[in-house]
Amino acid sequence: MTKTIECVWQDEADQLANLSEQQKAWLEANGFKGRAGELVALPNAEGKIEKYAFGLGEKGKSHPMVTGLAAAKLSDGAFELKGDFVDPNIAALGFRLGGYKFTNFKKSEQKVELAGTEGADAHEVVLMAEAAELARDLINRPANDLGPDTYEKVIRDFAKSHGADVRSIVGDDLLTQNFPMIHTVGRASAQAPRLLDFTWGNQDAPKVTLVGKGVIFDSGGLDIKPAANMLLMKKDMGGSANILGLAHAIMSAKLNVRLRVLIPVVENAISGSAFRPGDILPSRDGMSVEIGNTDAEGRLILADAITLADEESPEVMIDMATLTGAARVAVGTELAALFSSDDEFAASMMAEGLPSADPLWRLPLWDNYDELLASPVADVNHISPGGFGGAITAALFLRRFVKNTKNWSHFDMMAWADKPRPGRPVGGTEQGQRAAYLALKKRFG
């Protein structure tokens, strides 16, 4: 049986409609004021719970996904949301994502389901929810369950489910086809490195290319991480997981684009064949790259993939990565740091991100810091000395491989919720994908 949740703003808490006098008295007895997150079960005349009252908080000040707090408090069942929402789609999405649980390794749990939301576009809500859940499910899987071999199968199955054409370049074939940095970073693992490449859509449509960092686990390599810093490194493929979620939204919405997705998949492991600090690597671009620290491997694999993407001059290129701790120091865990060569598109993504609970904060591609990547023995060092501006210099390193594409954006994200928030339980999470999807929809929808 579907139950109803009557949602109300705090200053309108006394205006809840469709309630019996008994239920109104029950709300008053429970001190319900419509504060954000307040949830009160409303028994009918027979004492059964068929309806709830939920507080949205102060209008204009509440979290866009405040409805997710209701889902987090409920144990199971199907629910319909009713109320005067600022954005019914985001209200519905918040409820669905607030009830998200990762249960791959637990006995089946009962689930909170969304039966409908007053005023919402069901198709749009579902595709955004599926995009977020896809990213969460992948990020939450441990590396022993999602190694490079398995991740390739996941990506292949996903691409084929959308009718996309998919191919991969694996192991030493990366060398023969000129992806030397992807090969070098992943060669120490028992499972070979690879590059996944799929395309979808009308070949004559505007080209949109997405690139995602797919490091399924990052030990730090020979510059090994401390144990505490390694605990969450299953999430180091979070950029690629979010790229797949974004691709799902684009394809499900049938945007008028020729979509290409590139995901270099590696494990940064330690063995006799691991690359070393001080090594000088060739790149697909032709630049020689001095290795300053093997724990900064993500930008190396992205550089080869970005070079490939750039060769066909797409109209829009977006890359996503859990790239630097410096970005977390700068903007924390709730914001994705955004770098972009296109002011208008960056502004559009930021404008779409905030009301959809996918906030971004733009950081500068500060040209003066480019000299910090200088190397006395190679064309470039892939890291800068010291701890200053690390997210910026990482973005500047990637920018060196973007030669033809005018509209390039780089997301440096956490991809992990370290504390529960509305619509986001603790664990792997989406970042950047809604902001990018809604901006792309506005441009190509």
Task: Please tag this protein with its features.
Leucine Aminopeptidase, subunit E, domain 1, 32% helix, 445 residues, 9-stranded mixed beta sheet, Aminopeptidase, alpha/beta
Characterize the structure shown.
By secondary structure, the chain is of the alpha/beta class. It has 2 domains: about 1-100, Leucine Aminopeptidase, subunit E, domain 1; about 130-445, Aminopeptidase (3-Layer(aba) Sandwich), CATH 3.40.630.10. Helix content is about 30%, strand content about 20%. It is built from 14 helices and 19 strands. Strands 6, 7, 8, 9, 10, 13, 14, 15 and 17 form a 9-stranded mixed beta sheet that branches. It is elongated. The mean pLDDT is about 95.
What's this entry about, in short?
The chain is of the alpha/beta class and 445 residues long.
Task: Note the topology.
Layout: E1 2-9, H1 21-29, E2 39-43, E3 49-57, H2 68-73, E4 77-82, H3 88-98, E5 112-117, H4 122-140, H5 148-161, E6 165-170, H6 173-176, H7 180-186, E7 194-200, E8 207-212, E9 214-218, H8 227-230, H9 238-252, E10 258-268, E11 280-282, E12 288-290, H10 298-310, E13 316-321, H11 325-331, E14 336-340, H12 343-353, E15 360-362, E16 380-381, H13 390-399, E17 408-412, E18 416-417, E19 427-428, H14 433-444
Parallel strand pairs: 1-3, 1-4, 4-5, 8-10, 8-13, 9-10, 12-16, 13-17, 14-15
Antiparallel strand pairs: 2-3, 6-7, 7-10, 11-12, 14-17, 18-19
